[in-house]
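Email to the structure team, subject: Siphovirus ReqiPepy6 Gp37-like family protein model.

Hi all, the expression group asked for a predicted structure before they design truncation constructs. Nothing fancy, just the tokens so they can compare against earlier work. One-line instruction: predict Siphovirus ReqiPepy6 Gp37-like family protein, return tokens.
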Amino acid sequence: MDADTLARVGWVDVWVSFYWDSPYYSEGSFTLEVRPTAENLQLLQEGRWLVRSDENPRIPMRICSRANQNEDSNLVVSGYPATWLLTKRVSAVSIKNQNAEAAMRSLVSAAKPWPRLALGTEYGFDTTFEKQTSGGTVFDYCKTIGQACDLGFRIVLDGKGSKKKLLFECFRPTFDPNRRYSPRWGNLLNAGWSFADTDYANIALVQGAGEGDERATVWVGDVNATGSDRREMYVDARDVQPEDGETSTSQSYLAKLADRGGEKLLAQLRTGSIEFDVDDDTLQVGDVLSASLPQLGYTAMVRVADIITQSEDSGTTRTIRLGTPTWHKT
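Reply from the structure team: attached below.
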């Protein structure tokens, strides 16, 4: 499609290979290799958009580079999903304790116009971005907010002819109870796992300003744990000093020490990882699935983070990349 009008200028129905990564809340990318015919050289130029005829919704990919530096001197073009254009708009606003969807939409709306870009449907997701972020590209803002709030974002192609638009929208598919996977059903494959609690700690003794017995001291964490369930660690937080009007016994200062202890405990969690593949060609980006490993006694909910389609002479493959599962002991 044309870079500005989005009018169709041709199509590609023969290729040597292609790689197409459709993301939930990350960058994504594509690479297309074709023979260097006069038609392809004229058609596949930087700035133009590629759209797959088998996709719904239609996610345009922008051609950002092209080259013929390969063994067969083929034309290789590569680029990114339409959210790439958000990397070319910047902002300095501070986002904190705001509705995630509304914050993303406000950033896109406030950016300088891009040809045919507009806001799409607002779905009313009620998740709040409780952290703080400021300064960067609009894409970085959206990625930070999306990953913190499990909220996908994309730019889709909408309309026909002269009414075509690029619409920014957030999306978050809900869980379909039919999407359950387990080795016993033959649709969860290649499961691998590891667990450790070597460095695990659940209680921190934090000391700050002062000397000897006069040092400010707080305990944080699961302070009521006993016996082998109690795992202590020591945190020297002398670098955290009282500010104007505070003393080493001020509650506001002790709260800062407690925050430092909490941060350190987050780095001392039990470690564990379970990796697996799923066999399901109907999954789409953002879908949520339930996985279970009965032999370990774990179940998890996990979202599809990327779907990668690759086509070569040997055939076409579809790879599903999953996000980080949240595992629960059954």
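The first helix runs from residue 38 to 43. The first strand starts at residue 17 and ends at 23. Ping us if the truncation boundaries need rechecking.
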